[in-house]
Automatic annotation (TrEMBL):
SUPFAM superfamilies from the UniProt entry: Ribosome-binding factor A, RbfA
Complexes and interactors: Monomer. Binds 30S ribosomal subunits, but not 50S ribosomal subunits or 70S ribosomes.
CC terms in the record's Gene Ontology section: cytosol
Lineage, broadest ranks: Bacteria, Pseudomonadati, Bacteroidota, Saprospiria, Saprospirales
GO molecular function ontology, one term from the record: ribosomal small subunit binding
N-terminal signal peptide: none
Organism expressing this protein natively: Haliscomenobacter hydrossis (strain ATCC 27775 / DSM 1100 / LMG 10767 / O)
Entries under InterPro entries matching the protein: KH_dom-like_a/b, RbfA, RbfA_dom_sf
Task of the protein: One of several proteins that assist in the late maturation steps of the functional core of the 30S ribosomal subunit. Associates with free 30S ribosomal subunits (but not with 30S subunits that are part of 70S ribosomes or polysomes). Required for efficient processing of 16S rRNA. May interact with the 5'-terminal helix region of 16S rRNA.
Keywords attached to this entry: Cytoplasm, Ribosome biogenesis
Protein name per Swiss-Prot or TrEMBL: Ribosome-binding factor A
HAMAP family xrefs: RbfA (MF_00003)
GO process terms (BP): maturation of SSU-rRNA
Length: 125
């Protein structure tokens, strides 16, 4: 169970890391991919922030994630600059691909095809 402090730090990291991506993102992964922070989980000791990212407008999502991992220190430094007066210790960051929205659209598309083929059954049942 997450503590209040974990939730607060996670929200601060999420908000501020989004701004870091706006400032530094095009220098790291280019202008084409759209990268958004969907969720942040912080460990109980507040030493690690797991940042979940959605990546759009590119077929090479893993490559974008790898480029960000290579620039991890630079991104952490930029995050630390924004958080320096808000938290005592800047958490280390790890990046994870969040494909929840992609899966949702894929499942919705499958349901749409089933409805079009009348394989869903009637709604009265």
């Amino acid at each position: 169970m997450e503590t209040i402090k974990q939730k607060q730090v996670a929200e601060l990291v999420k908000r501020n890391f989004s701004m870091v991506l706006q400032d530094e993102g095009t220098n790291i992964y280019g202008a084409t991919p759209l990268v958004t922070v969907t969720n942040v989980k912080v460990t109980p000791d507040l030493s690690l922030a797991k940042i979940y990212l959605s990546i759009y407008n590119t077929e090479h999502k893993q490559e974008v994630l790898l480029e960000m991992a290579e620039e991890k220190n630079r991104l952490k430094q930029a995050l630390g600059y924004r958080l320096r007066k808000l938290v005592r210790r800047i958490p280390d960051v790890d990046f994870y691909l969040d494909d929840t929205l992609d899966e949702m659209f894929r499942i919705d598309e499958l349901f749409g095809r089933l409805r079009a083929d009348n394989q869903m059954g009637s709604e009265e049942e």
